[in-house]
Every structure is written in C-alpha cells, then in structure tokens.
C-alpha cells in the first residue's frame, strides 16, 4: 500500500512536501484536495485530517497532519540523504530552529499578502484598504530581514553547505508573495542567490512543475470557488486578516 | 563549560525547557532574562539570540533559539529517556505533529497573559482561540489516551501543559468543566513530579495573584 499525500499545490507547505517526495523518489499517491472548492472542509477529508488542513498523509491506517511532521516522517521512513535533516546535532538544531520560527514569523505574513492580493478580490465585494496591504508588506519585510540576518547569514544554505528541509520550507513561503506580484527577491541579492541555489539543488524541472499552479494565481477566477462554501471561506479570510 | 539556558518562567516555552532540563538532571546555568524589565531587548542578549526572545540556549560558541529546537537539542545531547521523543517512527510523528500545530493554535504573544490588566481588545480574540484550541486538543491530540503519544509523557505533553497553565496564570481555569483534560493534567503533573511542577509555575502564579508591572512598549 502506497503512501497517500493529500495536497493542493496552491499551498506552501504542500509544495514543500511534494518537492521533497518527488526529489527523493518516494512512491506516493497524489490526492488532490482543492482548497478553492472547499474540499478540505468535507466529511470525507475530516477522516484523514480532523484539523481540515493540507498537507495531510495517510500511510495504511496511520494518518498525519502538519507539513513538518510529514516531512520528518517521510525522511525517516524512506531514509533520505542526511543533508535534508543532518545527523550532526548542531546542524540539525539549526533546521529545527528555522522550522519552529517560520510558523509565526514568515508563514502568516506571506499568506496575508497572498490572500489580500489574490483571494480578497475574488471572494469579497470590496477590496481591502491599501494601507492594510502596506502594513502586511512591512511585516513581511521585517521577517525577510530576520531571515537574512539570523538564519541565512553568509552561508549557502540555512544549515550550512547543503540544502535541508529548512530551505525547502523557506523557499515556498517566499514564492507565495511572488505569485501575486510582490517580488521579495528584488533588491535582495543575497536572498536571490540563495533562491537560485535552492532551485538548482531541487532541479529546475521539478521546481517549475511544483510552482506551476501557484504562479498562475492571476488566472484564478471566482467561478472556481464552491458557491456553498463561499461564505465559510470569506469568514475564514476575515478572521485571518483581522 | 555548562549549558546556559536563558529563561523567564513567566513564559510557557521557558517553563517547558526548564522542567525538561531539571527532570532529566541536565546540568545548566539559569540565566534570568526578565521580560518585564525588557532584558530580552538589550544588546547583551542580542549576542545570544538575535530574535530577542526567550528561551535561548548557549553551549560554548553555539547559540540556539526556539523552545522546540532547544528541547530536541538537549534530548539528543544528553541522551534523555526515549519516551520524551520516541524512536518509534509513528509515535515520534505524533509528537512532531503536536509541536508543529501548537505554534498557531492560539494567536498572539501569550507571554502577555501574565499582565494585569489584560489588554481588552485582545481578550475576546484570545478567549475565542482558547476555546477552539481546547476542543481540537481534546478531539484530535489527546482523544482517549493517557498522554498525547500514548501511555507515556513526551515533549508534546510538556509544551501543552505549559500552554494551558499560561491561561490559568491569566486567571482562566481552562480545566474547569473538562474532566478529561483535568485528568490528563494530573497525569502530567505526576510524571513531572509535583515539586518540580510547583517550582516551575511559582513565578507565573504569583504574577496572577499579585499583578505584574506593565511591559515596555517595544514588546
């Protein structure tokens, strides 16, 4: 029985899991959970993940939520190369440190910029006040500053000389605002060079494949949203952006 | 050279790290970083943690932020008993799953909960988050098991208890009317040891009872 990965490549952590599995030739069944259609809120999906979020994993009777838990589980089960989660205690700690920090310090900021620019216009009648977007971009800029100064510094990758789970997660967070025209790499040469290294380490073809959906965000239309769930999605958006 | 742990026991992740180190007899130097005095914002502390947060660790030249990274580092360096972070792949995944989820379960800086009076505009949101979190915690993570992973305490329970005690420190009895949660709390307390548990929570519960000074604006 092959591992099932429940994913929507619009979502950053889903892309990290997808890239990791593909890069490491981990056999899996791609189970598409379309967020715009509210499929993550269905009763069927609740059996896989009570938290109603993607990514999620099912391995026989075992189900698992949370991208970090899933990445670590896959790395252990399939014995992936050491550099992804180095056995060196201090390097490993650096990866843990980034994976912990990013939840509240980069993910929400990137998500908010994406949602304000992409989701609000499609779901809501009136646009978000531009000052609000400015505020969120300011927060994002602060996070990027911390990322460069504390986590990347002058190293090729977060943990040192090789790509790890930390870089994979970080990259996806930064692709999110880029997808809505907020180019976080512009004017940040060190960050742009890191991004090129990550792209190369992943492989250009897989990189392109994984990003195709999100980079076509401008082609999303209101028609793609499930009408029954529109209200629910609006409420979730309002709560997030409060 | 002994490991230095930069802590303020008003803050829940600091308590988790403190309890873990004490429980496992890990030799360390307690470096008090008083949040209420803004000591986390001073230049001296920047050298330990550029992110200006506690807990932080220093081990010789090696500095480390983030409670989860610190707990895992200590568990590996000091080879703590398996149940804290089980080697069984699926049990370990359950711990990872909780540790990942708990970051965003309740939004905002919960260290502020030790403040009196609690900023009113955040109160409503905090209570809303807390109720939703309690429900998810019981239904998804605890279910009918003695501990989050199964039959023994792990890092997940340690982080969870600190979180719930923080609410208690803000004057909300999150255990009231929740017998399953209450029983779990007692089991965790027993596994940690009543004395260590009491010691770790003294600062927090005193802040609740006596009222804390306002935090510097830059928090």
UniProtKB/TrEMBL annotation, chain A:
Statement: the UniProt record of this protein carries the keyword Hydrolase: no
Start and end residues of each GST C-terminal domain: 88-225
Gene Ontology biological process terms, A to Z: glutathione metabolic process
Localization (cell): Cytoplasm
Catalytic activity: RX + glutathione = an S-substituted glutathione + a halide anion + H(+)
InterPro entries (alphabetical): Glutathione-S-Trfase_C-like, Glutathione-S-Trfase_C_sf, Glutathione_S-Trfase, Glutathione_S-Trfase_N, GST_C, GST_C_Theta, GST_N_Theta, GST_Theta
Entry's Gene Ontology molecular function annotations: glutathione transferase activity
Principal location class: cytoplasm
Keywords from the named record: Cytoplasm, Transferase
Gene3D superfamilies registered for this protein in UniProt: 1.20.1050.10, Glutaredoxin
EC number(s) reported in the record: 2.5.1.18
Boundaries of every GST N-terminal domain copy: 1-82
One GO cellular component, as annotated: cytoplasm
One Pfam family matching this protein: GST_C
Leading EC class: transferase
Cited PANTHER family: GLUTATHIONE S-TRANSFERASE THETA-1, PTHR43917
Homology family: Belongs to the GST superfamily. Theta family.
Subunit structure: Homodimer.
Full protein name: glutathione transferase
Organism: Sphenodon punctatus (Tuatara)
Automatic annotation (TrEMBL), chain B:
Record field: catalytic activity: RX + glutathione = an S-substituted glutathione + a halide anion + H(+)
GO CC field: cytoplasm
PROSITE patterns noted in UniProt: GST_CTER, GST_NTER
Keywords: Cytoplasm, Transferase
Subunit structure: Homodimer.
Localization terms from the record: Cytoplasm
The organism's place on the tree of life at top rank: Eukaryota
Gene3D superfamilies listed in its UniProt record: 1.20.1050.10, Glutaredoxin
GST N-terminal domain sequence ranges: 1-82
Alphabetical list of Pfam families matching this protein: GST_C, GST_N
Biological processes, Gene Ontology terms: glutathione metabolic process
InterPro entries the record matches: Glutathione-S-Trfase_C-like (IPR010987), Glutathione-S-Trfase_C_sf (IPR036282), Glutathione_S-Trfase (IPR040079), Glutathione_S-Trfase_N (IPR004045), GST_C (IPR004046), GST_C_Theta (IPR040077), GST_N_Theta (IPR040075), GST_Theta (IPR051369)
GO molecular-function terms, A-Z: glutathione transferase activity
Enzyme class: transferase
Similarity-based family: Belongs to the GST superfamily. Theta family.
Enzyme Commission identifier(s): 2.5.1.18
UniProt name for this protein: glutathione transferase
Keyword Nucleus: no
Organism: Sphenodon punctatus
Residue ranges occupied by any GST C-terminal domain in the UniProt entry: 88-212
């Amino acid at each position: 029985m092959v591992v099932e990965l429940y994913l929507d490549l619009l979502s950053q952590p889903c892309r990290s899991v997808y890239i990791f599995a593909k890069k490491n030739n981990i056999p899996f069944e791609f189970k598409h959970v379309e967020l715009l259609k509210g499929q993550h809120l269905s009763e069927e999906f609740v059996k896989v993940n009570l938290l109603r979020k993607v990514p999620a994993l099912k391995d026989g009777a075992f189900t698992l939520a949370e991208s970090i838990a899933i990445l670590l589980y896959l790395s252990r089960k399939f014995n992936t190369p050491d550099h992804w989660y180095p056995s060196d205690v201090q390097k490993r700690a650096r990866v843990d440190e980034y994976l912990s920090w990013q939840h509240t310090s980069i993910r929400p900021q990137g998500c908010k910029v994406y949602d304000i620019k992409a989701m609000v216009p499609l779901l809501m009648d009136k646009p978000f006040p531009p000052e609000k977007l400015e505020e969120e971009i300011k927060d994002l800029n602060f996070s990027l500053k911390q990322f460069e100064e504390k986590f990347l510094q002058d190293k090729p990758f977060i943990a040192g000389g090789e790509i790890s789970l930390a870089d994979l997660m970080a990259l996806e967070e930064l692709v999110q605002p880029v997808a809505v025209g907020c180019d976080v790499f512009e004017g940040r040469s060190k960050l742009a060079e890191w991004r090129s290294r990550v792209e190369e380490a992943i492989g250009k073809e897989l990189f392109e494949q994984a990003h195709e959906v999100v980079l076509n965000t401008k082609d999303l239309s209101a028609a793609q949203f499930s009408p029954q769930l529109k209200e629910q999605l609006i409420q979730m958006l309002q709560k997030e952006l409060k | 050279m002994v490991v230095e742990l930069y802590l303020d026991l008003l803050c829940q992740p600091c308590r988790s790290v403190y309890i873990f180190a004490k429980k496992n007899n890990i030799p360390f130097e307690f470096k008090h970083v008083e949040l209420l005095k803004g000591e986390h914002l001073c230049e001296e502390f920047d050298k330990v943690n550029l992110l200006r947060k506690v807990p932080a660790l220093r081990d010789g030249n090696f500095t480390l932020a983030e409670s989860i990274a610190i707990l895992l580092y200590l568990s590996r360096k000091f080879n703590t008993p398996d149940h804290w972070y089980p080697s069984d792949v699926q049990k370990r995944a359950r711990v990872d799953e909780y540790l990942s989820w708990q970051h965003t379960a309740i939004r905002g800086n919960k260290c502020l909960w030790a403040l009196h009076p609690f900023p009113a505009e955040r109160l409503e949101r905090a209570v809303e988050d807390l109720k939703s979190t309690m429900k998810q915690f019981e239904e998804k993570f605890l279910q009918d098991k003695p501990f989050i992973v199964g039959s023994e305490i792990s890092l997940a329970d340690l982080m969870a208890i600190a979180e719930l005690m923080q609410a208690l420190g803000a004057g909300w009895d999150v255990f009231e009317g929740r017998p399953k949660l209450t029983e779990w709390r007692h089991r965790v307390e027993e596994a940690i040891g009543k004395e260590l548990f009491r010691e770790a929570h003294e600062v927090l519960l005193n802040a609740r009872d006596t009222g804390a000074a306002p935090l510097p604006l830059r928090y």
